[in-house]
Amino acid sequence: MEGGKPIGENVVAAVTKTLDKLYKEPLAQLEALINATGLPVYKDPKTGALLWVDVRELRLRFTLSVNKIAKFVEGLAEGKLFYTQCKRCGAKYFPPQADCPKCKSSDMEWREVTPEGELLTWTVINVKPASFSYHGDYVVGIVRMADGFNITAWVEADPKTLRPGMKMRLVVGRRPGENYITYWFRPQI
Ligand SMILES: [Zn+2]
Questions:
Q1: What CA–CA distance (Å, rounded) separates 170 from 145?
Q2: pLDDT at residue 83 is higher than 60
Q3: Which residue range(s) make up the domain with 107?
Q4: Which end of the chain has less neighbouring CB within 10 Å, N or C?
Q5: Mind listing the pLDDT tens digit for each residue in 144-182?
Q6: Any alpha helices (H) in the chain, and if so which ranges?
Q7: Near ion ligand 1, which residues have CB within 5 Å?
């Protein structure tokens, strides 16, 4: 894995700091705009469309229980990706499921994902959610894994070089920007 340290508790503080820094400049511009015109409205430089910027800050913070999929989180910290397989009916799940939706069994086995697959399809994201706005355009792809299920994740590649069926390698590490451990694909060389 890349630059692996155990999952830290200061992730929230780091994200908050990054977002605060990121929005400092646009917020200052917004304030100047409101002072000058009395309205938080500006013209989109690309389309000329009038845009209203809501001045109320909306922050979402949520907590999800990962207790039943603790193995998945621990695996990420070790640079490994795990899926679950139902011991009763054999169904495989990624993201891992603690209970089998097919046969309702909770007798699941944790298995490490074989980090290879073939690119099925992909798209370039150029209109980004605010939390990813500091990234350049990025590629999201669906890869058919050697283990027989699909994984949707970012693809680190120039989209012009991508072809369906291309061999992909799964990477687990800290992605620049968020700095927390996640997984993505790279073309296999
Ligand atoms: Zn099952």
A1: 9
A2: yes
A3: 65-112
A4: C
A5: 999 999 999 999 999 999 999 999 999 999 877 667 789
A6: 11-37, 70-77
A7: 86, 88-89, 91, 100, 102-103, 105
